[in-house]
Recover the amino acids of this structure.
């Protein structure tokens, strides 16, 4: 019985955690740029807003985004901090999209900048995942973020 339970737990973990990222439908790609409105220690999430020079389904779709992200404390060395979750929204000329931040990492670059990679799950306006990669810059106030949206 114990062996059957362990096999079931492993199988369930594989189905949930082992799922590969699936490209979003519609396809959303582009460049994003924004500022941090509130730090996690003050708002229980790091909150960002900014602009997107995007393409939705291969058509130009400029727009605006906001995201709130919960993460482990930022490291002072080159080790990673995990992104634990959050919410996001993108409003473009081609529609509005939103969903959950379902994971990622923040790596300290050693110069008060951080390399960020996160996976966004599209729950409204489409489905699938979008990957965000970019740089969080804490060298000036307010902190800024510049990056790209791409498909997994």
């Amino acid at each position: 019985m114990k062996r059957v339970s362990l096999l079931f737990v492993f199988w369930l973990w594989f189905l949930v955690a082992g799922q590969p990222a699936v490209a979003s439908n519609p396809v959303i790609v582009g460049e994003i740029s924004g500022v941090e409105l509130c730090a996690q220690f003050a708002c229980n999430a790091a909150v960002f807003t900014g602009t997107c020079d995007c393409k939705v389904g291969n058509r130009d779709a400029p727009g605006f985004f906001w995201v709130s992200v919960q993460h482990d404390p930022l490291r002072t060395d080159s080790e990673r901090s995990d992104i634990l979750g959050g919410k996001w929204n993108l409003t473009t000329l081609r529609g509005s999209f939103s969903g959950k931040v379902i994971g990622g990492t923040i790596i300290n670059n050693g110069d008060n900048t951080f390399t960020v990679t996160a996976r966004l799950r599209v729950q409204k306006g489409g489905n699938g995942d979008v990957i965000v990669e970019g740089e969080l810059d804490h060298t000036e106030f307010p902190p800024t973020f510049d990056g790209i949206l791409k498909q997994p």
